[in-house]
Amino acid sequence: MGRRGLYLAIAGAVTAAAFALAAVAAPARHFVDNSPTAIAVDVELVIAVDVSYSMDPDEQALQREGYVMALTSREFLRALRAGANGKIAVTYFEWAGQNDQKIIMPWRLIDGPEAADAVAAEIARAPYRRASRTSISGALRFAKPLFDASGFRGLRRVIDVSGDGANNAGPLVVPARDDVLAAGITINGLPIMLKRPTPGSMDIEDLDIYYEDCVIGGAGAFVVPIRERERFIEATRTKLLLEIAGRQGEPRVVPASAQEPRISCTIGEKRWQDRWGSGGFNFQ
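^ thats the sequence. predicted structure below, dont judge the formating
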């Protein structure tokens, strides 16, 4: 089966699975916003998108268009209706360097087509921007407290990280990831692999493996890599459907201290240091 066939098969399977999962909610062990006015939803979803300079304008447009079209797709709305509560909460922010995060859309409730259209329109009309460095750890540390007073009480809490490079600024990514997972939050990844790494560049060949071993984790965590521009929107929709359907499984974390890690979780910091000199990194 080709990659396109695989994506389509996953999308169809997810939509069907959503109906089966509607009556099997994840254990509510890690609710954060327990205020009396908090609205019960199936998932609280933080969408964190990379706007570093390594993302060219075309990639930025594709990244945003992918989420806009996914949120308004029939498959998404079908999966939404199949949830135990029939609604989700979502917020969307952009990130680059260690202290460069900007909320494009605060928490919004999606409970049907009209709300989905409004959310998609709000994301679509935000101006584009780009900034220096790539700090996945900074994005994760920014995302974690967003759940604290979201106004929603989700059966699941998920951070959806998309980007085209390894962490090269701020704290190391593994401790930041582990701190998020300790709070019962799942991290999923959308590694963007449209460019072929060149000598001297910051790009890495196996960004999908880096995301699997160093970034994602939690119950049902997964990575959907994007290697072709024409598959960008399709892959984003597939990823969103998997998150809404709430597939569950064993928490997935590959320890950075594994005896034979597939890729170094400090590869981004080391490449930055090799290219630009000391960046104050502590690789211990």
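The chain has one domain: 3-276.
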